[in-house]
Design brief:
Strand content: under 5%
Shape: flat
Oligomer: single chain
Order of helices and strands: HHHHHHH
Low-confidence stretches: none
Helix content: 55-70%
Number of strands: 0
Amino acid sequence: MPRLEAAACAARGLHAGRGRAAGLAQIGAARRDGRWDRALAPPRKAEVPADLQAALEVNPAAQVFFAELKGAYRYAVLYRIQDGKKPATRQARIDQFVGMLARGVVLHPPRPRVDNSASAIDARHRASC
């Protein structure tokens, strides 16, 4: 599914007369079946869908944790919900992610940073001997 920026770029190309038959057919099919309207926004501009927002409002712990998420962690949730094709899949994902957020769990937990200063390396070496 194209991102919103790709859809906008394609639209500009169409208006400039740069479209080819195969590409125009794909864009026409996407407009007819709704994919064009469901194109994903880039991470910076992604908005919380109404159904997810409603589910978060019912679960204050999930709402607070989601509000604190930054960048890729937030977009990972939004992308996976938006990517669901069937309404049942979308609702199941919303339920799953609201539960995870309520527990303070993210999809891709950050790896612990390793201190690679000379003194830390020396201390690890002494501890392993």
